[in-house]
């Protein structure tokens, strides 16, 4: 009977620890954001932990762009920020849940996979217009 009581106490402790970890992870994730700027600085934006747009700033240089160019620049910049926030989320969740099915579920539900690679760019394009990503 004493062994069963000890097992139950250990189980209760494990559940309480899991609840504390879930609460801590949630609080940490809620404070996250990531930002990115377009290569020449026309667009700067910030996204939250789920990748949702929180803020966007357009400089006067953005007005010189055609609507289609500006739209594409905003989308590309948002994807950079979403990739950054996805990597932050994966890093935090790895600390709390480790590598496994739970982390795989988190990765699958990010706006863009955290391990997705950027589209191929020529070296000339990359060095002429390096990405600017800030956390």
UniProtKB/TrEMBL annotation:
Protein name, as recorded: YbaB/EbfC family nucleoid-associated protein
Alphabetical list of SUPFAM superfamilies matching this protein: YbaB-like (SSF82607)
Pfam families tied to this protein: YbaB_DNA_bd
A molecular function GO annotation: DNA binding
Segments of this protein annotated with the region Disordered: 110-135
